[in-house]
Amino acid sequence: MNIKIIQGDCTRSLLNLDNKSIDTIITSPPYYALRNYNDEEEQVGLEATPELYIQKLVSIFRIARTKLKDDGTVWLNLGDSYAGSNGNGYKQTISKYNRSNNAKESVSFRDKYKRQDTGYKPKDLMLIPFRVAYALQQDGWYLRQDIIWNKPNPMPESVKDRCTKAHEYIFLLSKSQRYYFDSEAIKEEAVTQGQKKISPSGWDISKKGSHGSFHKEGRSTEHYEFEQNEKRNKRSVWTVTPKSFKGAHFATFPEDLIDPCVLAGSKEGGTVLDIFAGSGTTGIVANNHNRNAILLELNKEYIEIAEKRILDQGSLFTDLEIIYEENENKRRIS
């Protein structure tokens, strides 16, 4: 199997991929206004308004749709944002550039990421994930399901006027009305039990009362045995514990969250794409399940983290290729 990491702006990287070459896309874009990723000029998430953020994602996925096979799917993870605080990403950006000695660069950067009046009231939950999903639906995608990622150990919050957020969303979208989805591959252990009525042999079941059959001595002969159903269709609430990763200071996908997306969305030998690859979890999981992976990432530091994680998997991968946008520099590790 092959893992290919492509460094650079995701729009340009997508344009260079072959049309209809991807089986499924599994990705988590930077959340709106929550983090500044090392001041990368082309990063997504620091747009001046939620509308501009949504428009940017729609344009990216419009290109991605041409790279997806006709029966392909997208698994899109997004968290939400609150209005009024400008977000940590914005504050980190302005704080750094306020200290800059280059006043022209500072003003330019601040103007580029300046927060505009969004129409939201302070403390409003902006429903960004649903607005993005609706916009993608309007752009031609089939919106098939909203999956809830239930987090047993969510990030602690000090808020006193609402509950601590303990879930995020994964949206399942498809390019066509009919698409590849292997429900058998992701069936889960049944937790409910069926009941089967049993009448013990040698007992008289000819005399029935209002509560069932009776033994000759008057005791009830009717009892129940529990019959375990082995598998059931996977439910739309996925309980997956977030796991910290000491090698990165940003959020990483838990591998258990990606497993069902890879298994349901692609066949063995297929190709999985992550448009915002981060630390490379999607590639690792895809390779573990005998799928190829293409990972797009703007930040070189994150590519180094992804490379180390993939190499640490040992024999679980066949071929790792890293392509840098600058001078088309390539590095292959077999």
Features:
334 residues, two-stranded antiparallel sheet, ten-stranded mixed β-sheet, Rossmann fold, single chain, alpha/beta, 26% helix, 2 domains, 16 strands
Summarize it:
The protein has helices spanning 10-15, 50-67, 87-98, 103-112, 128-138, 255-265, 281-288, 300-311; strands spanning 2-7, 22-27, 68-78, 142-150, 167-174, 188-189, 193-198, 208-209, 212-213, 223-228, 231-232, 237-239, 271-274, 292-297, 319-323, 330-333.
Please describe what this structure looks like.
- With 334 residues, this protein is of the alpha/beta class.
- It folds into 2 domains: 2-188 and 237-333, Vaccinia Virus protein VP39 (Rossmann fold, 3-Layer(aba) Sandwich), CATH 3.40.50; 193-228, no CATH class.
- It is 26% helix and 25% strand.
- Strands 12-4-5-3-2-13-14-1-15-16 form a 10-stranded mixed beta sheet.
- Strand 15 and strand 16 form a beta hairpin.
- Helix 3 (87-98) packs antiparallel against helix 4 (103-112) and helix 6 crosses helix 7.
- The chain is globular.
- The model is unreliable at 87-115 and 201-221 (pLDDT under 50).
